[in-house]
Amino acid sequence: MNNAKALTGIIAAAAVGAAVGIAYAPDKGSKTRKKIRRKAEDLSESVKDVALNTKDKTVAKASTLIDQGKKTVDTLVDKVSGKVVKAA
């Protein structure tokens, strides 16, 4: 999770830096707007990539934890069942 936060921070910092750089560039207004639009689209794609990557990692981790939980429950059921049979 810390990697996702760090990457998000880096992306945000890059976006701010790009916006400031474009704002102070000596281009015509139409060129500047095109640059801003392109940078915004690039940033949007980067954010989507980070979100999808984070989602995929979260789903994989949840699946692993569910499998481990099922194995633990099965082991406990087997142990309890064995003790109940011995007690009877």
TrEMBL record:
Keywords per UniProt: Membrane, Transmembrane, Transmembrane helix
Residue intervals passing through the bilayer: 6-25
InterPro entries: YtxH
Pfam family, one: YtxH
Domain of life: Bacteria
Name of the featured protein: Gas vesicle protein
Native source species: Jiulongibacter sediminis
